[in-house]
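Quick one, tokens below. Sequence please?
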């Protein structure tokens, strides 16, 4: 069915996208999501939990890791003006969420530096999983080339074959509906936090899809199950926080209703909530690479999701900055020098507010700490082997 072209003006008097056009695009994205919820509940519920941006940032549609969160970005002129078929719009947003699930954004392999080939290879993989939704004309598939490409291979496999046949590729061969321009911009902490949030959304979507999740292609089921398992926190933070900070947890009393009773003018009930106030020290010295920082902030997010109030303390040989964590990894960290443990512990001891405990994320390569911060300290270290500097301290290992 071909839709009538919407009548909202494309631009306002200043040349910017007209607000009515933006609202219209949001409505069309919602219609596409609802179609997926009806026909493919897992994908529909997953897309319903991913932030959206409508505007001219991208030429067509794309996904990104921004602010530690996965984001679907859609150009209204492409989505409304170029795509006239409702089912094509469904295909495009399913295509984009598949890029997220397959982690194409985070797999910028330095041995495969050609962005064009990597984009083509990623689209070849994803478009095999779009299913019966009709792809826009010109979409890149295994049949788009003069040489044979077998189905069901990885992005890296297709990249290597395309590189061998690079001289045979036609001019202008590129994705016409998926913009990968922001894939190279995310750093490791940002990507790790976004993947953790995507795993949470995928877990909820799988639960809401119920038995219908079994209707998804086997490859998708394996990807989703691996993503959920991969992003489960290494540590049982709920139990750990309860054990090492329970003696001084804060108690917060709140009303159970947002508004008072009209009849009595009172709040008929209260709810008591307990939460730990934690200082989480992140070792930002030069020995901590970006991938390890990503793992650290994935664990920080798990602590925060347990209901703890988290203050991040970035430190190498000195405390570089501190800030309240609200679920997002930073764009960058300060430091990259040597490592000393005492400055961060001194900062906690002298802080104007008291903390129930310290979680120190580090590789442990430094002299033993000598400062007592006035509260319990839990040392979290990646990898295996002994850490001589922390031999007399409570240490938990995580995979990195």
């Amino acid at each position: 069915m071909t839709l009538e072209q919407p009548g909202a003006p494309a631009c306002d008097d200043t040349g910017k996208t007209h607000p009515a056009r933006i609202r219209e695009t949001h409505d069309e994205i919602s219609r596409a999501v609802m179609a997926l919820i009806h026909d493919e509940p897992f994908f529909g519920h997953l897309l319903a939990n991913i932030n959206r941006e409508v505007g001219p940032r991208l030429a067509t549609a794309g996904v990104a890791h921004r602010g530690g969160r996965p984001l679907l970005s859609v150009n209204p002129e492409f989505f409304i003006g170029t795509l006239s078929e409702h089912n094509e719009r469904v295909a495009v947003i399913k295509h984009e969420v598949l890029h997220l699930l397959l982690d194409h954004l985070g797999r910028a392999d330095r041995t495969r530096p050609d962005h064009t080939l990597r984009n083509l290879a990623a689209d070849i993989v994803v478009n095999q999983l779009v299913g019966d939704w009709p792809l826009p004309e010109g979409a890149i598939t295994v049949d788009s080339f003069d040489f044979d490409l077998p189905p069901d291979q990885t992005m890296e496999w297709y990249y290597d074959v395309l590189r061998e046949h690079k001289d045979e590729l036609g001019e202008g061969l590129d994705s016409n509906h998926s913009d990968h321009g922001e894939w190279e911009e995310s750093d490791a902490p940002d990507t790790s936090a976004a993947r953790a949030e995507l795993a949470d959304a995928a877990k909820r979507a799988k639960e809401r899809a119920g038995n219908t999740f079994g209707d998804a292609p086997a490859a998708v089921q394996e990807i989703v199950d691996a993503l959920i398992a991969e992003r489960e926190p290494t540590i049982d933070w709920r139990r750990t926080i309860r054990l090492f900070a329970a003696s001084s947890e804060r108690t917060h009393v709140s009303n159970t209703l947002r508004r008072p009773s009209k009849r009595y003018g009172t709040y008929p009930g209260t709810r008591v909530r307990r939460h730990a106030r934690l200082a989480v020290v992140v070792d930002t010295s030069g020995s901590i690479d970006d991938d390890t920082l990503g793992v650290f902030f994935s664990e920080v997010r798990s602590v925060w999701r347990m209901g703890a109030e988290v203050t991040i303390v970035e430190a190498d040989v000195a405390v570089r900055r501190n800030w309240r964590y609200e679920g997002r990894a930073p764009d960058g960290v300060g430091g990259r020098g040597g490592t000393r443990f005492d400055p961060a512990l001194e900062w906690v001891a002298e802080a104007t507010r008291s903390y129930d405990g310290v979680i120190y994320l580090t590789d442990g390569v430094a002299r033993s700490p000598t400062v007592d911060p006035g509260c319990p300290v839990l040392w979290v270290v990646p990898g295996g082997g002994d850490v001589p500097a922390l031999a007399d301290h409570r240490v938990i290992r995580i995979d990195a």
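Residues 19-230 form one domain. Confidence is low (pLDDT under 50) at residues 1-6, 270-274.
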